[in-house]
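just leaving the lab so this will be short. what follows is a protein written twice so to speak, once as letters and once as structure tokens for the fold. can you read through it and tell me how you think this chain folds. thanks a lot i owe you, the record is right below.

___
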Amino acid sequence: MFRSAAICIITLLLCSLSLWAEARNVMHMRMDGSDSVRYDVQAAVQEPDSTAKVSSADKGIGSSESDESLFVNETDTIRYTYTPLPPLEPATDSLAIAADSVPAKKPGFFKRIINYFGQSAVDKTFQKRMDFSVVAGPSYSSKTSLSIGVLAAGLYRVNRRDSITSPSNVSLFANVSIIGFYYVGIYGNTFFKQNRHRIDYELSFKSQPTDFWGFGYEDAVRNKPGSYTGKKYMVDIKYLYALFRNTYIGTTLNFNYNNAINLTTPDYLDGQRTRYTGLGVGTFIEYDSRDVLTNPYKGLYVSVHGMVQPKAFGDSGHTLWRARATVDYYKKLWKGGILALDLYGEFNSANTPWTMYATFGNSMRMRGYYEGQFNDLNMITFQAELRQRVWRRIGVTVWGGAGNVFRSFDSFEWGQTLPNYGIGLRWEFKSRMNLRLDYGFGCKVKGRLINGLVMSINEAF
């Protein structure tokens, strides 16, 4: 009796162990709403010779064994069975159909605006021919007063299957102020075939009431300002060809028309006319290892540019020339922190009209100075800028630098070198394209600290 009981107990233990081992190997995989697959993994015994491995492999996917074995890895197989689950209750199906038939609630106006700009910084150039976004709003600067601006920026690829070529960019802008200033234009960069060819372009028209002090450092700090309304048409087109890795040569075409209307201080012109037109052609060589042109995080940019305006191509009565040199350097210091350095020089021939002089105070260099107050034939500037991403698409920047305008190298004076510094706010409007708001400061003239607000797109350099 005890022997029979012991045998029964041992048999039950062995069955329990067998069921427990099988349960550990059994898995369930969901196929859809009503079906499942039950399968168990079995490891075949390793044979000491290669023949056993071959025979085990023969039971793989192509095997016709009746137990539906599937070869997985060397000697392991999966044995599976298909078990459909019972269909859902009719009531459940009707509830699902009713839920699907309820229309989704449309987001409100402000929610749509947030969603629109929330997606604007995502690069969609591989899915769309043109990834375009538009923004509009008020702005203010010391030169143009209160104005309303509209900006449309787009990214695109000439060949959307070419992942090596950088995305091209285009920006259209218009700005109108309460003092009669208006400025419209388009500019951008188009990249072709793995960055081996590139076209940079800018076309603009500007009408701007402006103050005028004369020419050079002494006039800027001594004279009382006059005024005029400046009309300016400008077309600048550059073609670049990749000669070596990151090294480009190219040619440029520049047309400009400038006219000073209603000038109140004509004696400041020193006998020059109020209107000049010219067409110039040039050549240049560049080294450019920047990762992205519109907002670099790393790289080096060196450019030497020369342009000639033949006497027959203008109304100045002289053949004119201009030389420009730029050195920019970018380095990532820490997470979200970029150091950017810029050294720039511009040099013009002695007979260059005043409307083509190098000037302080544009949106790129010596920000905060009144544009045109300090101007002359030649100019050298340097600036260092720290850019920091602080939260999502918002960043800030601080910069400091100096510059000098002078008639010739013989008349260059270190004591006339002017300071420049400021702070700025950044918002990534498109992928690697920032809207920026900069407030810059300069020197003191007659006890007044020069300062000004600049609003623009893309980084200053």
Remarks:
- Residues 26-101 form one domain.
- The radius of gyration is 36 Å.
- The helical segments are 2-25, 50-57, 90-101, 109-120, 216-222.
- The chain is about 15% helix and 50% strand.
